[in-house]
Amino acid sequence: MRLDTYKIVHWMNVRKMTLRQVAEAAGLGQARLTDLLEKPGGDEWPDADVAPLAHALGVAPQHLSASGRRDLTVVTRTAAQLAETRRPIQRDGIHFYNYYTMAAPPGAVAPVILDILCPADRLPALNNGHLEPAITVNLGPGDIHGRWGAELTDATWQVIEANKGEDRWIVGDSYLEPSYCPHSYSLASGTPARIVSYTGQSNLAALLEDVNDWPEPAAEELFGWLGDEVSPRALADLLLARRGHTLESAAAALGMSGEKLAAALDYGAVDDLRELGWKLGLDDRLLLRRQLRHDAVGKTYKDIAECRREARDFRGYRVASLAGAPHLPDLSGLYLRVTGDAGGDLVEPAETHYLVTGGSLRLEWAEGDGAASCELGADGTAWVAPFVRHRWSGDGSLIKLGSGRHLTYLDLYELTNTYAAAATLRRGRRDGRSWGYDS
Q1: Is the pTM value of this prediction over 0.85?
Q2: Confidence tier at 42 by pLDDT (50, 70, 90)
């Protein structure tokens, strides 16, 4: 296993153990451990050494492993390479889909392209849904049926159209689906069709991993507290109780009545909520009522006509937004039309996936002290790391997909709460310093 030097130092600091103490607890020579920690990129270690080191630090071995993403900027995959990832899927007794995986680093979540093969005269069998919310786009050339429930209604049975008119760079309808929404697709006619679907990272994944270890009564207590909706009042009661306050005592601390504070929570009185946060150490933004935009099964839809109306110029590209929703802020997407060499630099706050939907394009990006580039045609794909400066040129069109692998909107919340955020991240990145007791 390849170990990450900085993860080892991090856990040494968390456990408040010196290098000598870790070496002794792991039964490793101090010189051996010192040698590992002096290699900036880590080193390949035999499992016989990794297991006792992880045990000494009280973590699983994978918590010390290198990610395989060190210094990665861009990963590309040509149309031919995409075709090599084809996996036929059987469902409901028929050849239902072909799956293809877009470019991504090792171990990363990547969008998939699906050939829709269920015929138009057959109701497509539902899947069971998945934790990760998703953004899905019809790539055409034909329309497809989308199904999102056992009972067929306007919300659970809908045609997802492909663009057969003008502005073909806007290739089709798109939609967002929430966690565990059952879904399936079939052709709407004899014309073949494909979709691209990005099951982005779920911000609930880490919480669920932890909740899986909770005893049943504790988990049920959480579920009962959540109920059907987490209202600002329910959040306030929870957060105030942690600080030994009731709504009435918190209101008294602010010099107002309990009724006024309750009204502030119910109606989003920003100044009163900000004062509450200031006084008691709460993030007042959590107490604002959320705006949700979805249908009866939780999905948010955007058709071709709406995309056309919203088409605009952006940094030398022609763009139109895919479906988006305030309750899934990390899932985002754009159609991009690239014409000539006019396209400017793009710098994204999170990892970005691109699919070339037509034409021939050139991707250029910053690489170390220089620059790199590649040519991609239709069905070529690319993954671009966060904050890597890049641009597109040529004559063609793209779909750009973004999800929540850094910076997530939760990261942004945390960074806005962090004292000296830039200095903190600068210090923490690849931090090889011990906690101060080793010379």
Answers
A1: yes
A2: low
